Amino acid sequence: MGNSYVVLDADGIIAQVNKADPHHKKAITLTLMLAAQGIEFLFPTTAIAEAITVLKFRKKDNRVVIALIDSIQTWKLTIADITHKTTRQTIQFFDPKSSKRNTFFDAIVVAIARKHNARAVFSFDGWYRKKGFKLVEDL
Predict the structure, then answer these.
(1) Domain residue extents for the chain
(2) N- to C-terminal Cα separation, the chain
(3) Residue 110's closest CA among 132, 85, 136?
(4) Would you give per-residue pLDDT tens digits along the chain (139 residues)?
(5) Model-level pTM greater than 0.85?
(6) Ramachandran quadrant class, 20 (left: phi over 0; alpha: psi -120 to 50; beta: rest)
(7) Dist CA 16 CA 7 (whole Å)
(8) Angle between helices 10-17 and 24-36 (to 10 degrees)
(9) Which pLDDT tens digit goes with each residue over 46-63?
(10) DSSP of the chain, one letter per residue?
């Protein structure tokens, strides 16, 4: 895998599938732009799990959860499994004393993006820039 990937964070996934999300229109525009450039999406299993959890429990919108699960089953997604090695590498990117908004899940996204030399992270969280990555809106 090379520079033709962007790694999705849960907020990027949520913005793509949830029409009520404030970033939905931008996420769809960015998705279409990336697809036109032949850039592929890499979905960490943890980002998918986090997105489903947020949509189910915080947004309480089962229709969006069902649509996301259907898309996972029908699309040919490139999924990054989280291995023991990935988890160990994640620890170097996670600061338990930092903001509670920057989670271990976010650190996993960084580890996956570094491992695959991703062009950017599909997220609306500027924290990834601090970790040396562009956001898709920067491409």
Answers:
(1) 5-138
(2) 19
(3) 132
(4) 445 899 999 999 999 988 889 999 999 999 999 999 999 999 999 999 999 999 988 766 688 888 888 888 887 788 998 998 999 999 888 888 777 778 999 999 999 999 999 999 999 999 999 999 999 999 9
(5) yes
(6) alpha
(7) 14
(8) 100
(9) 999 999 999 988 766 688
(10) --TTEEEEPHHHHHHHH-TTSTTHHHHHHHHHHHHHTTPEEEEEHHHHHHHHHIIIIIS--HHHHHHHHHHHHHS--EEE---HHHHHHHGGG--TTS-TTS-HHHHHHHHHHHHTT-SEEE-S-THHHHTT--BGGG-
Q: Measure CA 82 to chain center.
A: 14
Query: What's the alpha-carbon Rg for the chain, to the nearest Å?
Result: 14
Token couple for 132:
């040396």
Q: Rounded to an integer, what distance in angstroms lies between the CA atom of residue 94 and that of residue 16?
A: 26
* Topology adopted by domain 5-138: Rossmann fold (3.40.50)
- Residues present in the chain in total: 139
